[in-house]
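SUBJECT: A protein chain and its fold
Encoding: whole-number codes for local backbone shapes
RECORD BEGINS BELOW THIS LINE
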Amino acid sequence: MRSSLFLAVASAIIASVAAHDGPHDTPETPSVCLTTPSDASCSTYSIPNATITDAIADICKTSSFLPGCSLNTACSADSTLNATYCAPLSILATLCSAPDDGALTGAACTKTYSVFCASNSLIPACKSQRAFSGLPSGKVVTGTVYSVCQEMPMMTDCKICPGPDATTGYSICDEVKAWKGLCLSMPDMTQCPSFNTMCKNTTFAPFCDAKYVSPSGNNGSTTTTTGSSATPTPNGQTKPSSAGALVGSWIMTSLLAVVAGVSAFAL
């Protein structure tokens, strides 16, 4: 009787520790809306943020000079900027809606944005979070900067960008920064109508305000979580840290030893 009682108590403790140890990772089934966005259920669907930000990161890790990547950097660095321009889906739309840049963005866009925000998509955000209006493709910005700097190489902002790469046709630099500096310095240049039109129709300071400075000490590239021993998993759940797992394992082992000893004593 006494042995059964001890075993029951020990089992309850072990179960409690196991429950505290956290849920096991379980794979999530992708929503039908990410592959068939015309399905009726998609009229209330929200695209997971990670699906969008992963696609942006996939493009910008190798093509950070694209205007959409400059937009992503600016938005990451300043949380006070207008969400009209900085919604992650708007940034991805900006990258994927520039046909001239398809050679660089196509691999990521054709399996993400071009699918779930196709013309027949019923996902609400695809209609409300559009591409940045007036922001040209990287090809256009590269061409503009190169043209200006061929004519007036002594302009200060020509130092930002080298000539276009012979293989890709892009200048591997902060193209938008050079474009902004050149066209704000001499807005009447024949190469600057697209810049002037964009900035006439937008209040996005990082691209259009010569006096704008992003907040210091925040480059928007990393996210740090403090005060937690949990590690993010791909499906958004958390799992214990290595130290937590070792402690949990030690507790489990100790409890099992106690149970074995009590059982032997009772017999």
